Amino acid sequence: MSETVVRYEIQGVAAVITLHRPDRRNALNRALVAGLIDAFRRAEQESSTRCTILTGAGTAFCAGMDLAEVAATLDQPGEAEQVHKDAEQLSTLFDLIYSSLKPTLAAVNGPAVAGGAGLMTVCDLALAVPQAKIGYPEVKRGLVAAMVMPHLLRHVGERAARDLLLRGHLIDAAEAKRMGLINDVVPEGELLATAQRWAVEMAEASPQALAVTKSLLQRMNPITDPMKKTTASASADARLHIDAKEGLRAFLEKRPVPWARG
To answer: Which residue in 9, 46, 138, 188 is the catalytic one?
Structure first.
């Protein structure tokens, strides 16, 4: 695990995993995704902890995928293979968090956008500061938030999920709580303390009972292996489409996307 992009600490009953690219608003590059996979695997095996807390360094939780890294692969040899590998890695990370036997809690310290909102969504519980902005704006860049769809539907239902995914707009923490996307809004200075307090509450429960409860919840809202493969493939295929390539170039060049109307 890279010490430069992921920070791993034991704090009381919790393993605290921090996305640590504050200069890039904790954007998800390949090193960060790999580091998070290692960190969550480590947390799962940690005998001294009962909960895993995920948060971000600096003023953002996670700004989504690192578009500069993505742009470097555009129209390059081996692009399709790399894009599908990236999607499979992110799918692996989401599944590790979702299927963990220990409760996972997102402490959203700032904007959680696109893949960053996905990280928050796959956690069991989520707290956010009032200034956090949350959303899935992938469609505005020609991308598809496929891997998060099954998880988003579990939290907010189809009508709200369609609103978030099709409009691609950002909502504030209060609205996210109202629709059930997060559990509570917490003052900035109290975020991690509140997360730790919730971790202590869960540590009062039987680890076996928590694991069985999580397993039953997953069986009642199954996200199957075929579904995971389908959504990862759909995400990668969208990224290889000409719309996504034009959308990424437009974003990096700070110009309107070619399909925008109105």
So the answer is: 138
